[in-house]
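Entry 14. Ran structure prediction on the chain below.
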Amino acid sequence: MNFFKPSFYYEKVVDIGVPFLKTNNVECILLDIDGTIAPHDLPMLVSGFKPWFKGILKNGIKMVLVSNNHKNRVKFIAEKLNLPFVYFSFKPLPLGIIRALKIVSVDKSKSIMVGDQIFTDILGANVCGIRSVLVDPTNIKKGIMSKIKNWAEKPIRRNLGCGSN
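Output, structure tokens:
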């Protein structure tokens, strides 16, 4: 198994449609924050996120935010969306992902991890045996660690045919 290979790839989180989720028996989305649904450390959500989010919830699909960021950052976004969350999740280690699944009581076979980082989100999902969706980073502002990870991921993304990163 290639632990860096996502199960699926979409350019943006809002491109992941309900038909795709239903076809793949997804009952819960484990959702990264920074670079996935919001620019790194900024208080805004990506364009089109709110209607997408409402459509997902309307179809009975649960969501949990799973982030490596600090409590205040994750809680701020979680409260905006009224979602449960796990902060300091330590992805790619399985701790936070397992905790998130327990919060919503959904089996990993009916869950999917969505994120923009191969070395955290995708690797973490694969280690846990959860399907994953890789999206292109939304970052306007990038910290030094994000820049390093994005640089290191370029050849992997190119090899997998995933995105413009």
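The CA atoms of residues 4 and 156 lie 8 Å apart. Will compare against last week's run tomorrow.
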